[in-house]
Fold this protein.
Amino acid sequence: MSSSPIYIETASAPTNIATIKYWGKADAKWNTPINDSVSVTLDQADLKAVTTAAASLSFEKDRLWLNGVEEEGAAENKRFRACVDGVMALATDKVDPKTGEVLVKKEDWKKMHVHISSYNTFPTAAGLASSAAGYAALVAAMMFLVGAKEEYPGQFSTIARQGSGSACRSLYGGFVAWRKGGDKPDWSDSMAQQVADENHWPEIRAVIMVVSDEKKDTSSTSGMSTSVATSELLKHRAANVVSKRMEAIEKAFLAKDFESFGQLTMADSNQFHATCLDTYPPIFYMNDVSKSIIRILHAYNAWAGELRSAYTYDAGPNAVIFTLDKYVVEVGALMLHYYPEFGENYISNPEFGTKIKEFKLDEGLLEATKKTGRTPVAGQVKMMYYTKSGPGPQLLTDQILNLDPKTGLNTYKP
Ligand code: DP6
């Protein structure tokens, strides 16, 4: 091992759940969408990706470890390269804060190889936007490592977008839009923009029902390419539906109007899954358990005489249920009633677990939801997460490292 120093930083990044969905690419090379989308950034206390990035002249090649396992050939992967090289191009001089001495000149970062080690605190590729958190954490860790500076606001999100489209929205907290762009030849205007930060509507809550934690059948990338090629409904959606919904949902979020926010969220999830069914051959992301959750939540809202819960499903069977602080225990208790506890740590948050177990559901509500045909069965839902909206990526300075600072080799074990 040569004596060249190893520079190292660790960042965490959140996942996000779209309420107006991105589905379909306008330009595969730049990874840009056919329509705008918007999402809620989830709290990293519950779900996050944690990534350590190290750079050194002593490293022989770029290397990547995901959840403790090395990914062979990662350095040639187009998405990985776009993120690493994209941030490297914005590097600045690294200066010793005490002496003012330049330790690394900005042009010298590129001469080094990088080692990256990343893990998720939630199931990978189960439709819980793990790629969004993963690429956002990669861009964030690289940013902190090389002291990168944006040349225009939102530039880092254009880099994360090339890792995974939805990752661009994970670079900000709260409620975040991805403007599709397209006026610039290099698509530098296809970027994320924060609509409101995580403190704007602090009462928003999410309950996530993990219907399956296995890897999904059709990846988003291949699914959306078949949809673009075959679905008339997707064309109609991009041309005539999404821009109106974007305007309405951003307004609803800013006005804290849960009725409109929830209605648009559910309608857009349903339309996204309708475009999947309209794809030829069709793609099925929701299963019968997912659909039973939809029926129960509609029955719940109807019983309440107001919209108290709103579901949304990404490219997988898991339900993300948005609600408000004042109803979240009722929503959680209702879900626990129909999808009873299964195994240890069924409920991510023990305090929330105690509250929903103690909550007495209204008899009328049980009557109303029973009519959906659902009877309580354990095992079809593997886990319940309780979470809220949270901030964008964080620099972790408290010595949480996934790489050994002396050797640059992975230390993370699942
Ligand atoms: C259904 O961002 O995973 O979650 O850009 O090909 O990596 P790539 O796709 P990805 O697609 C996410 C699709 C979605 C909707 C959304 O998050 O907007």
Summary: The pocket of DP6 is lined by residues 18, 21-23, 31, 37, 129, 131, 164-166, 220-221, 314-315 (CB under 6 Å). The chain is about 35% helix and 20% strand. The radius of gyration is 22 Å. The first helix runs from residue 78 to 88.
